[in-house]
Amino acid sequence: MNESEIALPLVLVIDDDQTIHLWAKRHLRVAGFEVIFADNGLAGIDVFKRHSPDIVLVDIEMPEMDGFTTCSGIRNVPGGQNTPLLMVTGTADAERIEKSYLAGATDFIVKPINWQVLIHRLRFMVKASRVFLQLEKSESRLSKAQQMARLGHWEFKIADNKLYWSDEIYKIFERNSHSFIPDQSSFLNMVHAADRLHVEEGFEKAIKNNTGITIEYRITTGTGRQRFVGQQIEVVENQIKGVVALTGTIQDITERKDHENQVRHLAYYDVVTGLPNRTSFLELLSKALELAKRNERSFAVLFLDLDGFKGVNDTYGHHVGDLMLKEISGRLTEGLRRSDVASRYLYHQNYIVDVARLGGDEFTILLNELTQPEDAAIAARNILKWIAEPILLENHKVFSGASIGIALFPQDGQDGETLLKNADVAMYHAKKMGKGNFQFFHDFMNVKARKRMELENCMHQAVSNNELHLYYQPVINVVSGELIGAEALMRWDSPQLGFLYPADFIPLAEESGMILKFGEWAMHEVCRHYKDWQKEGMGYLSIAINLSSLQFNQISLIPMLKEILDEYQLDPSFLVFELTETIIMADSEKMLGTLLELKKMGIRLSIDDFGTGYSSLSYLKRFPLDSLKIDRSFIKDLSTNSEDAAIVNAILALATALNLHVIAEGVETDLQKQFLQNTSCQAVQGYLFAKPMPMTEFQEYWQSS
Ligand code: C2E
Ligand code: CA
Ligand code: CA
Question: Does the reported pTM lie above 0.85?
């Protein structure tokens, strides 16, 4: 606030003498005061209440209520205690002066009034009073602030070992300020035993280095509660004696600490299971590394991934999924705590196994102080057993399993990231091996993983670089030997990777989704070739294309197909789609809709690799299918294995009953051919007749047939 904003000081003059009113008005207004008046004591108190003047002049000699009574009356008004109050009197005898001060007067002047002197006095009094008020205000603000901050002040005099505490510190320590006298030892007694050394060192350091420092520690209060405090220590020096005292503040920081702990917990622990998260697991791992390197010891990192967790999540919802993760985490921590492996090592160290959740359905386990790799295998085997136990979740009995990968220090990595990555690679391998098992990491796994990545990278340019080719394998009428069709089979001639068969890239293409692009390319290519053959006047031949389930479920399948057929002006009746049993097994409205749509277009539908999948014969009836291909594994031992022969006969009987066309795949020998010729099987495909061949070669084959 600057001077101009301060209101003019308001003077209240209480006097029955009207001439005083006139004089006061004249002199005081000119000097920059505002003046209000009252004729007697009672009116004076009333005006005071209403206007809260900055200063009051009271005449002692007044009728009815004299100045003394008026003065004490004003002092009793709320806010009237600190206003400067000047008594005005005709005679200054000792008794009056004494009575004035007793009534609460600030000062005293004698009539006749010297106005010039009075003005200076009033100015000074107003100023002093304002400073005083301000001080009082800020002091109460400070103490309120300190109270709010739970901040207290302390002082320690070294010479006489005296410790002074402000009220707030008594409150923080929950001690009675009347009965409790703090000193060095009683103070230290209240400090948490584990923090005492830290506190003593703090004081010593402050004195030794002659600097202010801050320490944080726990205390036990008078009521036995534990609180966290922060203490500021300042050194008070004296030129002759050096450090004579210590002073500073103590603040209750329990809430802040709690909050920090919460934040820390959120940053380091998984909310669902309460287990350490990835961040803290990597920290644990680096500690384990340090220790193992120093002591030349070994440890294991287990990477665990639940099998089929997504299914539980999708079927029962995330809530049940979370319950499942909690249950699994409990089984892991409990089991490992109790297991032989852990207890054997617990003997050496107090923490041995750490379980963490990396996210999703992935858990990691750190087995410290491993004496032999076999112990990690024992732990993994146990874990798989615990997880395989059925889980009851809100009345749903759920079965789970896991795949575990194990990486060992030092052989499988020198740092945490590498160990974790290699354990992950090993886990992936365990999954590939059929789930529900564990695998130790081996270097070849990384080679595999690298190959996989290389393959995936190269795949992106396969179509645009014209690296893909379609080969055609003839389909023959088994009785007449006549060419009746061909199956289009993909080949990838990669400049980087060499000539690849579908087994080398189709699975990955399906996993990565690249199969959609490859599949679209294949349809284009088949149509382009067929158009060329038509132009050559080659006649009719049915061409089979393999369709993976991802392609089949693609929403754009039908429109894309129509567009391609349109582009080449082809009637799709030459096309056969070979579907896997998994596509049909989905058995959904949508699937059936797509099948019918394809049928309507005139495309024929065939079940590929029949007999290897679910082979549920009942579904064959329900779908608009045209043919099935008996898997070549049944054809292989047809002439030697009577069981296989029986199966093939059963399939053929069924197909006849359902009016389905049958193609036998993988016919390599005359014996197989002869066997099939004596059945109702109409078509064959296999190396005995022809291998898959490039487009031009196939065209020649066709022309010469
Ligand atoms: P598939 O549909 O069962 O195709 C038949 C496979 O058996 C072909 O292998 C073929 O070369 C092979 N084969 C044919 N006759 C004989 C024989 O007498 N003896 C033996 N041992 N094998 C024979 P290929 O070309 O390596 O294809 C493997 C698989 O890759 C195919 O199995 C098919 O599932 C998939 N595939 C091939 N091309 C495509 C494609 O364009 N799209 C999709 N989605 N999958 C494809
Ligand atoms: Ca096929
Ligand atoms: Ca097949």
Answer: no
